[in-house]
Design brief:
By secondary structure, the protein is an alpha+beta fold. Helix content is 24%, strand content 33%. It contains four helices and twelve strands; from the N terminus they run βββββαβββαββββαα. The chain has a seven-stranded mixed β-sheet, with helices on one face. It has a five-stranded antiparallel β-sheet with strand order 1-2-3-4-5, covered by helices on one side. It is globular and about 55 Å long.
Length: 210
């Protein structure tokens, strides 16, 4: 029950809004995970730093799979934040020694742009098509990792590549590219990350990594 809890916000996961409550003591979260039909699929109870979690699955087998999958992704995203990891909504083509993040709102054409790279540029392959993880390493280098979450494209590769560039895509009647100012670039990357701005500790770690 959500009685006597504080509703703090929602997480948007591919068009599914997962509602979040916090206890008055601020030491745990209750997250209700709904599928695309807004049917409750999972009730997730976590500690404030997502180091421990308990989930109750609801509905048929497909709904339960959806609920568990999203619960794992949420817990991974926010428990990993203090370690310099970012869960990012992006499509990622890669070469043997480099990876590139294509950012943009759903429907912009990230996957389509990646497919053009795969079709026309030699030695390019797909690393992840929806939710890669970016990690800032202790030596200052940045890596992009494949994950078990790749949207509608089944690409679950346990590999990583050095990050060489980030591109924010926008549809236009012409081809053009330019470098963004630092503040604008940070804003675009941060907007593509899984975040909970009301959780100041986690949000500070994410902003610092970005």
């Amino acid at each position: 029950t959500t009685d006597n809890l504080d509703h703090v916000g929602e997480i948007d996961c591919g068009g599914c809004a997962h509602k979040i409550w916090r206890t008055h003591e601020a030491d745990s979260y209750l997250i209700l995970i709904h599928d695309v039909d807004q049917t409750l699929a999972c009730t997730l109870l976590t500690t404030h730093n997502f180091s421990r979690a308990t989930c109750t699955l609801h509905g048929n087998l497909d709904a339960q799979r959806f609920g568990l999958n999203n619960a794992l992704m949420i817990c991974y995203s926010f428990s990993a934040a203090p370690r310099g990891l970012l869960m990012i909504h992006a499509s990622v083509p890669c070469t043997p020694d480099a990876a590139y993040l294509f950012l943009g709102k759903s429907g912009t054409g990230k996957s389509t742009h990646t497919q053009l790279w795969l079709r026309h540029i030699p030695n390019v392959e797909l690393l992840n098509d929806d939710n890669p993880v970016v990690r800032l390493m202790p030596d200052g280098t940045v890596r992009v990792y494949g994950t078990p979450w790749s949207g509608k494209t089944p690409c679950y590769r346990p590999i990583y590549r050095p990050l060489r560039g980030i591109l924010k895509l926008q549809q236009a009647p012409h081809n053009a590219i330019h470098r963004l100012p630092t503040v604008s670039a940070m804003s675009e990357v941060l907007a593509s990350c899984s975040t909970m701005p009301w959780d100041l500790s986690t949000y500070r770690h994410i902003c610092q990594t970005v």
